[in-house]
């Protein structure tokens, strides 16, 4: 695996007014709009920037028949970084196909998607997706109530597809996302023995936490077997805080790179755990929000008349949670054993990696163990 690539500037030749003008006309729904000024900034904290992809906010002013107007638009620049099958977990064109297919326009409930103005392909293995700018009305650090509300909206999204006789089926949707990701991190898990002597690893996995983790890794097939027969829905698979925008009465979901069929409960598990991994909730919230988010998700399923009993959803939630922990643990070895990655990760989580391992990774271990043990009782 190669180091993630981040971009702090845009090649001046990459974008000019010839690219922007038709997009801005669509944004403002005004064929006579003429750009008078514009600039851009890289968005590092939301939905992109890793592995050659970058997300930029363009904004400026135009002259119109009714005077000056301001505008904003998002450009997501996708670059093929590896050869992945269209049904693989990280197919680079999946989000493009999501918008091309139009299936997101049929969603019901309060989980919504930004409008896509246009898709360009300026070069081989490069794709530009021009998206609606959605201005979030909340602070960067969500309240518990906002997590709970968005969990309900996520339940409505999953419930919409659970209530249907047949899921959408496209040859670019991910298949067996959990299992294929576990397979991908398996070589990294081989580094656990080396990692155990690493100072940072010892900070994050104190006492016998590493032994418990290895035992859970050996049981990974059991978790997948538990998830396989559960009711299947369409999963976003990456609907965590940084890919969700909270509006007063809806949640806007971005970055649909992982979307595909999956078990009920998987999306809300990812929402809780991955938000924790990226320092968007505390260890205390990881614990205190576990049940309220499940209950809100269940309410969202009920909103869409999806008939799934609570015990089944709880199993999908808990088992998916443990699988996501195992996937993260594999990547932890890659991070901790390669010091060249530390600065990049610290910029994402906005805290020193030593503090992260003590205050977050170590603090989460009792919670993870409790959830893993709860699966055995279901």
Protein structure class: alpha+beta
What is the CATH superfamily label of the largest domain?
Aminoglycoside phosphotransferase (APH), C-terminal lobe
CATH class of the largest domain: Alpha Beta
Distance between the termini: 37 Å
Helix tally equals 14
- The order of strands across the largest sheet is 1-2-3-6-5
Rg calculated over all Cα atoms: 21 Å
Strand content: 15-25%
The CATH topology of the largest domain is Aminoglycoside 3'-phosphotransferase, Chain: A, domain 2
Morphology = globular
Compute the number of strand runs: 10
Give the low-confidence spans. 1-9, 47-51
CATH architecture of the largest domain: Alpha-Beta Complex
Can you tell me the number of structural domains?
Answer: 2
Order of helices and strands: HEEEHEEEHHHHHHEEEEHHHHHH
Tell me the helix content: 40-55%
Mean pLDDT: 90
Describe this structure in words.
- The protein is an alpha+beta fold and 378 residues long.
- It folds into two domains: 17-132, Phosphorylase Kinase, domain 1 (2-Layer Sandwich), CATH 3.30.200; 144-377, Aminoglycoside 3'-phosphotransferase, Chain: A, domain 2, CATH 3.90.1200.10.
- Helix content is 46%, strand content 17%.
- The chain has helices spanning 17-28, 94-101, 144-162, 177-189, 192-195, 199-204, 209-218, 220-227, 266-277, 283-288, 290-303, 310-336, 342-349, 353-377, and strands at residues 34-42, 54-64, 67-79, 111-112, 116-123, 126-132, 232-235, 244-247, 250-253, 260-263.
- The strands form three sheets. Strands 1-2-3-6-5 form a five-stranded antiparallel β-sheet. Strands 4-9-8 form a three-stranded mixed β-sheet.
- Strand 5 and strand 6 form a beta hairpin.
- Helix 8 packs antiparallel against helix 12 (310-336).
- The longest helix is centred in the last third of the chain and has 27 residues, at 310-336.
- The radius of gyration is 21 Å and the shape is globular.
């Amino acid at each position: 695996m190669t180091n993630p690539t981040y971009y702090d500037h845009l090649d001046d030749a990459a974008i000019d007014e010839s690219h922007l003008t038709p997009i801005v006309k669509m944004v403002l729904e005004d064929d006579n709009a003429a750009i008078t000024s514009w600039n851009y900034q890289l968005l590092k904290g939301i939905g992109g920037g890793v592995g050659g992809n970058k997300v930029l906010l363009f904004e400026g002013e135009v002259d119109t028949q009714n005077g000056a107007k301001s505008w904003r638009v998002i450009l997501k620049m996708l670059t093929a970084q590896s050869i992945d099958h269209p049904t693989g977990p990280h197919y680079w064109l999946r989000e493009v196909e999501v918008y091309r297919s139009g299936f997101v326009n049929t969603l019901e409930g309060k989980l919504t998607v930004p409008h896509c103005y246009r898709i360009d392909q300026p070069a081989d293995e490069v794709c530009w997706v021009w998206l609606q700018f959605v201005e979030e009305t909340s602070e960067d650090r969500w309240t518990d109530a906002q997590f709970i509300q968005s969990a309900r909206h996520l339940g409505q999204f999953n419930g919409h597809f659970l209530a249907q006789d047949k899921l959408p089926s496209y040859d670019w949707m991910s298949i067996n996302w959990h299992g294929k990701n576990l397979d991908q991190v398996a070589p990294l898990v081989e580094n656990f023995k080396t990692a155990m002597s690493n100072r940072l690893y010892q900070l994050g996995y104190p006492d016998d936490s590493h032994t418990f983790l290895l035992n859970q890794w050996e049981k990974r097939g059991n978790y997948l077997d538990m998830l396989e027969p559960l009711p299947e829905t369409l999963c976003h698979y990456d609907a965590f805080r940084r890919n969700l925008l909270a509006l007063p009465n809806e949640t806007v979901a971005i970055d649909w790179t992982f979307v595909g069929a999956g078990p009920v409960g998987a999306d809300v598990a990812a929402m809780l755990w991955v938000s924790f991994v990226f320092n968007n909730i505390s260890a205390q919230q990881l614990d205190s929000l576990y049940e309220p988010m499940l209950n809100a998700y269940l309410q969202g399923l009920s909103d869409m008349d999806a008939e799934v009993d609570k015990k089944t959803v709880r199993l999908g939630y808990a088992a998916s949670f443990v699988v996501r922990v195992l996937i993260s643990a594999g990547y932890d070895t890659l991070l901790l054993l390669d010091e060249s990655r530390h600065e990049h990760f610290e910029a994402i989580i906005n805290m020193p990696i030593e503090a992260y391992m003590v205050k977050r990774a170590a603090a989460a271990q009792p919670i993870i163990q409790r959830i893993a043990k709860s699966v055995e009782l279901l």
